[in-house]
Specification:
heterodimer, A: 237 residues, alpha/beta, six-stranded mixed sheet, 38% helix, B: 234 residues, mainly alpha, 10 helices, nucleotide-binding (chain A)
Chain lengths: 237, 234
């Protein structure tokens, strides 16, 4: 069990310019497995992840980690839907978070080489990151997030606009990380991916947590008609 | 046309013969402007990054004022620095008036807003790109600023070169605070003004061509050193 968990959301609301985007959400998440957040466009999946991560403004309620918020932030990483590449080489992107945490250059580079090899970028260490392909960029973003060995990794639609092969490679890395004890919370539009990865599913609609269930059961027996309609591919209003 | 031609010939002659007086003036010009550029960059670049990263009250006003100060009239700057450094002024005890240091101070005041404004535009764009990543990585304010400065270094070089261009071609302020004293504070621009006043158009033009050549040479040297045009590099 990770030190961060359980995390409790108590009437947590994410707001922007006085408007509530997500919540209020009451929820408790424990420290194992993969939680997949699904829902139609505009349901608040990204904002929900950001709220939990602490980068979206909490307009009300509270989020209580099993440690201080500072410690919790230190042990989390976030992979964005559109990977942000530092205008540096692949190697420099990989060592960046380690160097910011005070690791020596030599040690950071050793670890970067291992991670680059693990995600299939071992031969691209001297390439400029912004000129990589979409799949390579996402793999680099993933490796850069995981290189600090976070206890919790957020992924916002990590495979959006990637082809099947790149998606499979990324899912393999995620499964490996999960098996290694890393807690994953990811949003996706891809129901196939949700079925493959989810130990637990959260269904969001209009910023509300509409349904929640264990992976396999949720997909066979969703509790709410909206979740059922969404899984059937109907338009959910 | 004749003046331009004879100016070119005289410029070639002065450079070709390594004219001692020309060398002295040109070196002083470079020394004053490069000193001002280094000091101004040390002030302006972190300031630009701070304005991009930090949210505080009146931030927009500070940015607007900084942009407005880009058009600061050099003569007014010269006058203010003169008053500050004159014997009866608050900094008169330092005895800096009519010295190259006074010229450096005036140039710093003139080019800091220019470098800071241009740098701020570039850093702000990069900050928009990096914002979510750096926030999610939980890096400190100082680390954010260092990252932004490093990753936008080539754009910042352009800002610094714009400052250099403004500084090396400046005449009004440094004439007032430097006094155009021979072998002490005479630089290329003040020498050009002097020779023009004396009617020595050819010599004035020659000095002008040397000034232009110097500015281009420094720009090319800095670009070459920083390898700005290397393929696929930022």
């Amino acid at each position: 069990m990770s030190d961060l968990f359980p995390v409790r959301l108590e009437a947590a609301r994410a707001t922007r310019r006085g408007r509530t985007l997500v919540g209020p959400v009451d929820l408790e998440l424990d420290g194992a497995g993969t939680t997949v957040v699904i829902g139609p466009n505009g349901a608040g999946k990204t904002t929900f992840l950001r709220m939990l991560h602490g980068t979206a403004r909490l307009g009300g309620g509270r989020i209580r980690w099993n440690c201080t918020t500072e410690e919790a932030r230190h042990h989390q990483c976030f992979v964005f839907q559109q990977p942000v590449m530092l205008r540096r080489t692949v190697m420099q992107n990989l060592i960046y978070p380690l160097r910011m945490r005070g690791m020596s250059r030599g040690e950071a580079e050793d670890r970067a080489r291992r991670w680059a090899a693990r995600v299939g970028l071992g031969s691209m260490l001297t390439r400029q990151a912004p000129v990589l392909s979409g799949g390579e960029r996402q793999k680099l973003a993933l490796a850069r997030a995981m290189i600090t060995e976070p206890k919790l990794l957020f992924l916002d639609e990590p495979c959006a606009s990637l082809d099947g092969r790149a998606m499979r490679e990324i899912e393999e890395i995620l499964q490996e990380a999960r098996a290694g004890g890393m807690r994953l919370i990811l949003s996706t539009h891809d129901m196939g991916q949700a079925r493959r990865l989810a130990d637990e599913v959260l269904f969001l609609l209009h910023g509300w947590l509409h349904d929640r269930g264990a992976g396999p059961e949720f997909f066979t027996q969703p509790a709410t008609p909206q979740a059922r309609a969404f899984l059937n591919g109907d338009i959910v209003e | 046309m004749v003046d331009i031609w004879s100016g070119l010939v005289q410029a070639a002659w002065l450079v070709g013969t390594l004219d001692a007086e020309l060398l002295e003036i040109a070196l002083r010009s470079l020394k004053v402007t490069l000193s001002a550029l280094i000091i101004a960059s040390l002030i302006a670049l972190p300031l630009a990054a701070l304005l991009a990263v930090r949210r505080f009250r009146f931030r927009r006003t500070v940015i607007a004022v900084l942009n407005a100060l880009m058009g600061l009239p050099p003569v007014v700057v010269g006058l203010v620095v003169y008053v500050l450094l004159s014997r009866s002024g608050p900094l008169g005890v330092l005895g800096l008036l009519f010295t190259p240091t006074a010229m450096v101070i005036a140039q710093v005041v003139i080019i800091v807003p220019l470098i800071a404004s241009i740098a701020h535009q570039s850093i702000r764009d990069l900050w928009q790109e990096y914002h979510d990543l750096l926030i999610s990585m939980n890096v400190t304010q100082g680390q954010k600023i260092r990252t932004l400065l490093w990753d936008s270094r080539r754009a910042l070089l352009t800002a610094a070169l714009a400052g250099f261009g403004r500084g090396i071609g400046e005449v009004g302020a440094i004439m007032i605070v430097g006094g155009n004293i021979d072998h002490a504070t005479r630089v290329l621009t003040t020498a050009i003004a002097l020779e023009t006043g004396k009617g020595n158009f050819a010599l004035a033009l020659a000095l002008g061509f040397v000034l232009i050549a110097l500015a281009i040479a420094v720009n090319l040297a800095i670009h070459a050193l920083s390898r700005t045009e290397r393929e696929g590099r930022w």
